[in-house]
């Protein structure tokens, strides 16, 4: 098994951090007025974060598979 390079590790860390921050943003959306309801802007930003993280992981997996 080969080790991951700096770019792959950076992509994985960036995806994990952005997903964690996205879930935190979604969670804190419950506590701002109106309580218990998540505003559409928070859901939109969370969707953008998921898209960004998915694209980082997808590109990394794609090129990592080509190199093998």
Report on the structure:
With 68 residues, the protein is an all-alpha fold. It has one domain. Helix content is 75%, strand content 0%. The protein contains two helices and no strands. Helix 1 packs antiparallel against helix 2. The protein starts with 5 loop residues before the first helix and ends with a helix. The mean pLDDT is 76.
What are the main properties of this structure?
68 residues; mainly alpha; 2 helices
Q: Mean of the pLDDT scores? A: 76
Computed CA radius of gyration, to the nearest angstrom: 16 Å
The number of E-state strands comes to 0
**Shape annotation:** elongated
Helix-and-strand structural type: mainly alpha
Q: How far do the termini sit from each other?
A: 10 Å
**Order of SSEs, N→C?**
HH
The largest β sheet comes out as: none
Q: Can you give the helix content as a percent range?
A: over 70%
**Unreliable segments (pLDDT under 50, ≥5 consecutive)?**
none
Number of domains: 1
Helical segment count: 2
The percentage of residues in β strands lies in under 5%
